[in-house]
What does this fold into?
Amino acid sequence: MKKVILKIDGMTCSACSNGLEKYLNAQEGVEATVNLVLAQAFCYYEDNVTIEDLERFVKEAGFESLGVYDGKEEHKKVKRYPYVLFGLLSILLLYISMGHMVGLPSIPYLSPHDNPLYYAICLYALTIPYLFFAKDIFANGIKNLIHRTPNMDTLVMVGCLSSFIYSLYHFVLILLGIDVMMAVESLYFESTAMVLYFVKLGRFFDGRSKEKTKEAIKELVSFTPAEATLKEGNRERKVTLDEIHVGDVLICKPGEKVAVDGTILKGTVHLNEAFITGESRPSKKSVGDSVVAGSMNLDGYIEYQAEKIGKDSTISEIVRLVVEASNTKAKIQKIADKVSSYFVPFIFVLAFLTLGGYLLLKMPINEAVTSFVNVLVVACPCALGLATPLAMMVSIGACAKHGILVKNNETLEKGSKIDTVVFDKTGTLTYGELRIKKVYTEDSTTQEELLNLVIPLEEKSTHPIASAFLKYKETHEIPEKEVQNFQNKEGMGIVGEIEGSHVFIGNEKLLREFHIKVLKTEKIKKREEEGATVIYVARDQEFLGSIVLQDAIRENAKDVISELKRMGKEVLLLTGDNKGAAVAVAKNVGIETVISSVIPKQKLKVLEDILENKKVMMVGDGINDAPSLAKSTIGVSISGATDIATDSADVILLHDDLDKLIDFFYASKRTMRNIKQNLFWAFFYNLCMIPIAIGCLKPWGISFNPMIAGLAMTLSSLTVVMNALRLKRWKRRKKKKERVEKKK
It folds into this structure.
């Protein structure tokens, strides 16, 4: 199936998004998820359905498609002055209508008792502008009622029109001079006006708050520079990003940002990639290394070749995945959506039952109408509908900013239930590359002398082992030495001449071929049993020593394992490596349960057995562990930022940092707690307010008018929004060292 994200206009509450989602899913060949916060419809559709068909379906449901989402956030600037103007008008309206009730002096000729006609005309005249100010509420309310998808606008529309028409009837009685004083007491023009104003004002603040939930996406988009320096022969030219093509050579100077993803052709530089990895330490990059668009050049000059531009860049890929993740629904959200889909029809029934009950009990009609309007206005499906998606949106965005890419909302929900974490070894608990672990020398040779002899030869080699020595050279001063007669002995090692001496570097077979005795100690034998690579070094016919190369364990692996255990999670090591190598790594990081020497098919079987009784997180190195990652409850990939497009995991740690695994668990826990708080306040608000609106507490003197009901409804939505925004404050876990110091 194809997929597309459509931008939607006209949704104001969860009843809108639920109604549109239900309508789209009722169409043949369409599967859709509608996001109220992002105002988007994420659609999967068959070949026989076109985007034009999808946009037509959106229109048929009573909404408008603004086209395909292109990764750019477009924000309408909402003018403030109408809200200020109508706020001042509201003060005047309240003073005229209610000032006399609290002992304030009446405005001449506008006293309800002395000049009821002028009083009524003034209230009517002041209320009319509010009807035009809130015309969108009436338009949406009527439209959604016609399309049988009643929403918050429908509730407010029916309530306000009822109140206005009821007041209009008594206004006519005053004009005709019939029961004037009774009619004056039955005017609710100010309530109609204030309900509309509070709803509009609430949406103004609600909209501004919602925009803050999208800041992570907007910041990611803004990291890419608007221009780049293109190299054309010996000339340099400033170009826009749209002018860059794959294969172009670009220049990045100190203080500038990398414009597109590419590979360095010339120069060495330190780049700040914190915007994409969450890692504040600069990364050293040189010829052959990849660079990511948006990285800040701290100190060097580089020329790099453009490889991924526009929507194919890493930034665009991350933005796309964050948006798609926000358009998925967690189980808890589906339950909340189902409840809110019945909410508006239930409120309509309850409001009419309230009206009918008052009339049957022969209570004053003005009380019946007031209670009817109160029930319609005070009920708030918005808070219920926003409780989950807002929290998920903020949390996924915060995770992305800190180098944790979560691919769907359900993953955040599942994270709080994980009880078992299974690690792969190579490339996960270890760096996945050989490094110098230990150097053993004979009495006549120092470690420094041995490496000064070996590294010049290894620089000539293309064997993967050579990379361990090159990495060592990056952080150590190694003198340059001329190498002559270099030879690569396949399957054995390398030989060459340095300063007139023959140097031999390789395995036992190489040295024996040249009749050199190998001195293998018990320590060396133990290292080999643990899976380490050992190379032997000789000069002329003299054995100089041994160098142990091993896949280095990640610096923070032990601390992360310890933290997982502290959190109550069972930890296992599952690897295809031999038992000796697996046990050695497990012992170093503190894992007791080890399953080794398993092929990918066997890994799946082991995971299936564990999954029968556990919720399992599998942590691997991305593509190589794809089947296992897909099978587990949550698959986590220790992956480079440039690999995200091909990664099959649910969560990607963008900086090869296991510590972010713990951050994910804390983010998941905080998110679920926040959602439960939101749902509690949404339900608690309605449970408290609806009985008061009906009039159940009138015998105890507790009641309110529609104006207060409108204000309360607005505050309930803002409470949920503000609570969700607390998730933006990223709280990293305390490291083990910090906890120990705090206890002291």
In short: The longest helix spans residues 659-694. The two ends are 59 Å apart (CA to CA). The longest strand covers residues 430-441.
